[in-house]
Amino acid sequence: MRTRKPSFFHNQGWLKMVKTGLDRILSEEEFLSKLKGKRVGLLVNPTSVTSGLKHAIDALQTAGVNVVRLFGPEHGVRGEAQDMEAVDENFDPVTGLPTVSLYGHTYESLKPTPSDLDGIDLVLADIQDIGARYYTYVYSIGLMMEACGEVGIEVWVLDRPNPIGGEVVEGNVVMPECKSFVGMQPLAVRHGMSAGELAHFFNRFTTWKCELKVVEMRGWKRSMWFDETGLPWVMPSPNMPTLDTAIVYPGQCLLEGTNASEGRGTTRPFELFGAPYVNAVELGKELRVLDLPGVAFREVSFRPKFQKFGNQTCAGLQMHVTNRDSFRSLSASMAILGAFWKLYAPEFAWREEAYEFVQDRLAIDLLLGDMVLRKGIEDGHDCVELANATGAGRQEFDARRAECLIYT
Predict the structure, then answer these.
(1) Which residues of 320-348 are buried (b: 16+ CB within 10 A; e: fewer)?
(2) Which of 52, 99, 153, 232 is the S-S candidate for 148 at Cβ 3.0 to 4.6 Å?
(3) pLDDT per position as a tens digit, 177-205
(4) Is the peptide bond before 346 cis (omega within 30 degrees of 0)?
């Protein structure tokens, strides 16, 4: 007689499955009874799935929920658009449901209008965040909260794990002059919060206020990495293929603010980095002498298939995280920026094109959140020290964050 091997959907045999907010509302009558008779809008993307990989749209409709409209963040409801690519959605191609894009051609498109919300009684927001303040999905949730608050619609945020854990906090907070869609609120770079905790933060300390309910997870501990939750990894965006990518992203996203490649257009985005003007051996030597914790660098050549240096050969390095608990992405990537500036300026330069709807600020300033940090790199200051100098506003963020933590 054949014995059935444990499958992924049986918790991989050794992991205790974390129960997401979505799985809770589908399995607990307390929630389903409150949804019955409501006209529901969904803010969703490809990560909005059950632990069995059924999409929230289908699962909720099967459960009898009257889904009347979909809202899609950056990359779209189905996630096919690349970064900073305007999404034009009117109907979902799978279900035929009317769809509103919250990432169009203008800054104003990021927030739903009253007419977008017309005929809706309640909005469910269910999107997997990454744990870094540049990742725009949490701002889409916040702007949805603000829009719904203005017209008296309740919002439920269906919580999911922070994939890089909820204990470590890294970096400074965004200064007002550097506010943008990659930093709309004064959050630390690596904020150490779940989307539900951030929703409480927005509702309590910002203008993004509404009648809010966070459907909390069950079984999540702050010390967990995503691969310890028992949940399936679904790419949150086209260039976030693995948990390895998410681990390096809080620092490596800074390379978007430069003319060096952050590895987009390759199969290891954000782990690979370089440019045609780089000497890989020289760059590796410059970084290894710093003896950064939890990371090793390997010389590589790569050829992006799109975006920066598309179809051109770049020399550079691959970042290999050897100890994810001691690794600090922001410190490592600030060191990388410092090495590029020291070795390759003026060929290495800051991006000057418009970035996330902002034209009058350098992209690197928007990402760093404080122009002092960019000037420190240019002046040759110790970049690891710059990364660890939390600056104005971090103490206030830490205190506010502590008030909003759910899972302690």
Answers:
(1) ebeebeebbbbbbbbbbbbbbbebbeeeb
(2) 153
(3) 999 999 999 999 999 999 999 999 999 99
(4) yes
Question: What was the pLDDT predicted at 107?
Answer: 93
Region of residue 53 (left: phi > 0; alpha: psi -120 to 50; beta: else): left
Query: Which secondary structure element, helix H or strand E, spans residue 100, and what is its range?
Result: strand 99-101
Choose among 156, 130, 141: nearest CA to 234.
Answer: 130
pLDDT digits (tens, 9 = 90+) for 148-168: 999 999 999 999 999 999 999
Q: Is the pLDDT of residue 312 over 70?
A: yes
pTM: 0.94
pLDDT class of 7 with cuts at 50, 70, 90: very low
Radius of gyration of the chain (CA): 21
Q: How many helices (H) and strands (E) does the chain have?
A: 12, 11
Domains, the chain, with CATH or none: 8-228 (3.40.50.12170), 243-388 (3.90.1150.140)
State the Cα–Cα distance between residues 160 and 66, nearest whole angstrom.
23
Angle formed at CA 180 by CA 175 and CA 184, multiple of 5 degrees: 70
| Cα distance between residue 121 and residue 105, in whole Å | 28
DSSP 8-state class, residue 111: S
Q: Which of left, alpha, beta for 52 (phi over 0: left; psi -120 to 50: alpha)?
A: alpha
Return the beta strands (E) in 109-163 as ranges: 122-126, 154-158
Exposure class string for 247-272: b at 16+ Cβ within 10 A, else e: bbbbbbbbbbbbbbbbbbbbebbbbb
Q: What angle do CA 126, 191, 272 make, to 5 degrees?
A: 90
Greater model confidence, 89 or 377: 377
Element of type H or E holding 315: strand 314-321
Largest CA distance in the chain: 71
Phi, psi of 336, rounded to the nearest 5 degrees? -65, -45
3-state secondary structure of 349: coil
- List CB contacts of 291: < 8 A, sequence separation 6 or more: none
d(CA 197, CA 184): 16
The answer to whether 76 and 89 have CB atoms below 8 angstroms apart is yes
